[in-house]
Amino acid sequence: MQLLKFLGYLFISSFILVSCSDDDDTTPVNNDASRVANLRPLGSSANDLLSATNFNSLSIEIVSVQGFEPSAAAISGFREFLQARLFKPDGITITQRTVTSSNNAPFTIEEIGDIENETRSLFNEEDDIAVYIYFADGGKEDDTEEQVTLGSAYLNTSIVIYEGTLRRLSTRPTAPALSTIEIATLNHEFAHLLGLVNIGTPLQSQHEDEDAEGHCNVPTCLMEASIEFGSGMMGMGETIPELDPLCITDLQANGGR
């Protein structure tokens, strides 16, 4: 399932199309018994992430290539998004560390899976659910001049952010600040782990985009597949897109806030 985004499309001065690859119909990491719970299809852990039914806490492991770490503002904005939507009475922990470059950019999703195999250290344990986020020093293999991918949520607890691509976009005239792009991309991809839209969290009303599976048809929603986002575009400036009430209702019905 190749889904379009920035959350759909990010239109900056040169009208570059940006895509969100949420499920590449593959299981790119190994089947080690200790990792099975973190090797499930996208959206299958939505309730576990949203609620405290099975997991009282969340540990997010951010692994970045040296020199491609997310900004402090991005981590702060991402944490605020999680706290607003998840029930985790024992808290949300975000740890960060860096690794050397694989020198494999641009990446296939299989190569990202191999990197996860080598660098992921946190997995579900007792009542703590773990999520892995890799900040890559390049882009996705099938990027073109017209369309690039900012991030992929590819398993139930796995995300890649193509930080190299985000940084290139942020240097364009009238582009949003890098931290704004990072927050929007992180929030959008994590919302796919939460099962939006209709990929693990059932719809409470019909708002899935018929032309972009897994995305919302409400204008300006964080999960919209096509949105103009930049200085002067739709009057948004540096405003981070938010989930619309229909997406929030879906999450609340599946155990979230």
TrEMBL record:
Lineage: superkingdom: Bacteria
Protein name, as recorded: Membrane metalloprotease
Organism: Aquimarina mytili
